[in-house]
Amino acid sequence: MRSILYVLAGLAVIGLSFWSYQENYKTRDTLSEVRRLNAEIGRNYQRLGMLRAEWAYLNRPDRLSDLAELNFDRLGLLPLMPDAFGRVDQIIYPLPEILPIVVPIEVNSAPVNPDEDAL
Amino acid sequence: MIRTPLRPLARILKAREKGEDTGAIEAENLRLRHESVRDKSRMRAEGRLLVLGGMFVLAFGTIGMRMGALAGTPAQEPQTATAGNPIIGQRADIVDRNGRILATNLDTYSLYAQPQEMVDPARIASELAKMFPDLEEEALLKSFSGARKFAWVRRQLSPEQMQAVHDLGSPGLLFGPREMRLYPNGAIAGHILGGASYGREGVSSAEVIGVAGVERKFDDYLRDPANEGEPLQLSIDLTVQAAAEEVLAGGMSLMNAKGAASVLMDVYTGEVISMVSLPDFDPNKRPQVLLTGDQTDSPLFNRAVQGVYELGSVFKIFAIAQALELGLVTPDKLIDIRGPLKWGRFSIRDFSNYGAELSTMDVIVKSSNIGTARIAMEIGAERQQDFLRSLGFMEATPIELQEGPTGRPLLPEKWSELSTMTISYGHGLSSSPLHLATGYASLLNGGTRVEPTLLRRDTPQTGPRVVSEQTSRQAREMLRQVVVRGTASFGEVEGYAVGGKTGTADKPKENGGGYYDDKVIATFASVFPANDPKYVLIVTFDEPSENSGSKPRRTAGWTAVPVAAEMIRRIAPLLGLRPQVDSSEPIGVTLTSN
User: Fold this and answer.
1) Phi and psi of B57, rounded to 5°?
2) Alpha-carbon distance B221 to B360, whole Å?
3) H-helix or E-strand containing B357?
4) Taking CA atoms, what residue in B is nearest to A37?
5) What's this model's pTM, rounded to 2 decimal places?
6) Measured between beta carbons, which residues in chain A are less than 8 angstroms from residue B105?
7) What is the distance in angstroms between the Cα of A6 and the nearest Cα belonging to chain B?
8) How, if at all, do strands B94-95 and B232-233 pair?
9) What ipTM was predicted for this assembly?
């Protein structure tokens, strides 16, 4: 009886040490993963900061106003002036919906006289 | 175990035969037995003591070894404790009230040299001098050929420049990572941001420290890693600031002024939405402090905060408002304005003769010095001081700029009756445009004190009451009339009900002894919309002269007012203010009668 207990205790020690060995290595792996992720987050932060700085630099008011002036022909942008505000009563009421077509209309898309079309 | 009997039969019988005492045998055996028991227990006790001692040696040995190991190895942070983000170690960004970036960081590289490793220092020096025009070949060669083992070449490199240095392929040139403070908007809000430079420099990194403005004032906050890169949000609106700078710069060149400043403030929260001082500078290339001459001519000088000037008639509204508050006058009460008003050998005149009497309202509308001085005499020096103190004119503004405390108002040494009279129309007391904005905001927002701030806040300030709501409303009505039919008629902006007061003050001569005849400070202090105040705008020009007419016009009505009106026209829509258009009939209301 006693010897069985000894054997079992021995087996338990072996099992536990094997488990703790594995846990130890798992923890180390996780820690190095965390380090790697932190480094990656750091790199991404730097990249994000750089992109934000670039965005802010490209959108600086001086440049935007110069661009608006250069492209006035195409965009027609003007400084926002008080007359840009509209009033509620300037908005038209929604137009009534067009009634559905009940009677089909014959449309002949083909030219009536092919010779005329050729001219 | 076999016990030794105390009375062994053989010996007892033998002793009985000889007639000896058998008790002696028993005593002898008992003694022997006791001795052996004693020896055994001593052995056991000694063994135990030995084990215990061993344990102590082991325990103390372990502790000692651990302490030795801890002392002997470099400190290391526990890795599993990830409190806070270890990555964000950069100086925090500064953003405007809508989150647009005003200041951020850029990763660059610094270039340094270790001359003892160089193969051909002369070639490197000439190549570097070609690459960077600001470096001199001789100075480089000197630093490369001496006994020094380390020399900085450049503090910052762009990626292209770094590649070019790489292409030189010299072993002695090394790069170190560097953070650079970038102000992407250039000169916009330059005075507010201030600028940054390097503190302690090392090869692997360098400390970025603020040198002026909010960068310096909030240096500790911006550098605190506990904020985890949380940006500092200012009350400035970048778009409004840019528009205000554009309009003010245009106005400054039209009016041939030496300098200009403007302050736009929210009347309820005290937030400074835009603050401009011209000439300005680019904080990316902060200019040197002037070594000679007048510091106020330097672009670094912030006229809106540091520039204390006698601002002239814009102060009149304070005297009138106080008189209204004290019940000394009503808007309709007639004031005697016959002049000149003499006090000792000093006489007070008006810009032109406005007749014998004006109502209090018209004293403001026509800007009568004599009328205001008469009212101020009724108020008295003491009460006037208390009132101006309650509006913040007695000390520097608490604005969050490093330069803030230098904007200290200049007060008369002795507050005589004459001082009371001149201060009532803005002479004898010098204050900054920011002071004026604070005073106007406090007076016109319904009458509660606001403190100017550069940090965004979403709730109105609840300061102590300065004047009653009624006085505040009457003051606004007077200021509105100045624009409608008074000195600031160019200030009318359709739909925004601008109210304001002009002020044209002669500049005092630098070395004392009176005032210049042809140099003025022209100021327009305005509030809009006057019927529902939201913002206060101060526009000040230094030495303006509008030369389109036959002779130069320098009064604020011709210089500061049109520029302020243009500024309101530009920025009010940007602030989301709709113009109030009087429609002929109320929208969506059907008149009925029963």
Assistant:
1) -60, -45
2) 50
3) strand B357-359
4) B87
5) 0.77
6) 49, 53
7) 25
8) parallel
9) 0.73
